[in-house]
Specification:
- By secondary structure, this protein is of the alpha+beta class.
- Helix content is about 55%, strand content about 15%.
- Strands 2-1-6-5-4-3 form a six-stranded antiparallel sheet, sandwiched between helices. A five-stranded mixed sheet has the order 8-10-11-13-12, covered by helices on one side.
- Strand 1 and strand 2 form a beta hairpin.
Length: about 550
Amino acid sequence: MSRKAWNEPSGKFLLFSRPFHEYSMRGRVALSQLPLSVTVALTALLILAYFPGTLLNPLFLSFLFSQAAILILCFAIPWDRLPYPSFLVIPFLDLVSIALGREGGQDSLAGISLMAVFPVIWLCASGVFPRTAVALSFLGPLGIIWVPLLIRGDMTGPDLARSLLLPVMSLGIGVSVTVLTLSMMRQQRDVEEKDIQLRGVLGVSKRQERLLNTVLDTVHLGVLAVDAEGNDILMNRKQRAHHLLASPPGNDDPNESQLLVFDRDRTTLVPVEQRPVRRAILGEEFTDYLVWLGAGDEQRAVSTSARPMIDQDGNFAGSVIVFSDVTDLVKALAAKDEFVANVSHEFRTPLTSILGYVELMLDDEALRDDKRGFLEIIRRNSERLLTLVSDLLSSRNGQLVVTPHAVDVAELVRASITAALPRATESGIKLRADAPDRLEAHVDAARVSQVLDNLVSNAIKYSPDGGEVTVSLRSDDGTVVCSVSDTGMGMSKEDQEEVFTKFFRSQAVRNSAIPGVGLGLSISKAIVEAHGGQVSLYSEVGRGTTFTFAVPA
């Protein structure tokens, strides 16, 4: 028996009702003695049945009574209160008792000395002083045989030789038991060390889990994690509130297809295959996908984003979906658009009136040339302002209209540069064109000129320290590609992501007090897209910006 087996906490003794190490120290000592006690009892029955005269031998009676007394000691002594190795006195007493039994009963039963194997196994299996236990496994049985011979003075060579068989056998058993016990103890220590490590890892994992749950329940974002089959792995407090909001009345546990998830119009249910969770389960990655949850006055706008989880083999293992309540932002944007629309409508009426009266005045043939020039300036700027108002209304409604026709785009580029030249000269900027003599395309001349004017104006405006602005034009596989590059202040990556947003102006621009309202690039992008084209940019802070737009020729 290993030291671990002997050191378990004490408990009630019930034979064979549970694993050995779960018994009390008293119970384990009694169980270890029990095999020898049963063997002694059977031996006594055999002697009584076939050799009753042996029971009159004082030595044999001493053997029986000593074994009974040893068994009683096993139960009576509170071993758990004594020093740990104290229980080893029992196998030593067993060896003395067996010696008495051998001397008193060897004429009847010659194999009584074989009982020494039981205390030998006990000593070697205890794991205490293994080398000493191995030595005793030989010396104990040898003493059982030799001590009586020495006492009787019967020390012949053959007798001594015959007596060596049992000690040698016992030694072999002792060595085997000791090796097995030490091996088991090493394995047990390894298991205990791994158990401690696993408990430590488990404790760290539980602390991290508690921290993660606390963080997730603290943030104002709904977080949902699902596995590859669509089963929920994690859902924080905010997402549970979102789920409850989207649940139909009377349905406490709806599935994804039953949830009230509406499109941007707030009335059309989003098809199941287009819902955020379903798209995420299919492995899609998306950002800022807007849906409305719930119905009635409690309906909320939610921006959703999803990222897939990949296992160590590169296979899809699930997704994490984030739900952000953007109801206030959506309402604020709607109010802003409504305000812009109302102001634009209010501007349109007086501007139309101004243009009408200017036209009437210009029709007067008696008008002096100098005054006609003033009126032309008023008309040109009024028309530009009216166009801007119309663009605001059209871009808000997504209805910006273009009228393509055959145009020499190279001429539009040169006209834009000519118009901007005075301002460029004033700002110390070198303005040049890199365009062919002629490049025809089927576009809306006025709208493309508006785009060019906006881009060139911005290039000059955001190059406060001078530099160079270049307008490049080329044809590329049926597409007209135009680039406007400057060597000005440039933009950060964060600003580049927002630059085409209406009314956006970067912090650097606001700090430099450069005038503007943040509409030019938004309108330019809308014009290019209305032509079926695309706008892109490349910029580095402090090194300049290049805007490129491409439209079908």
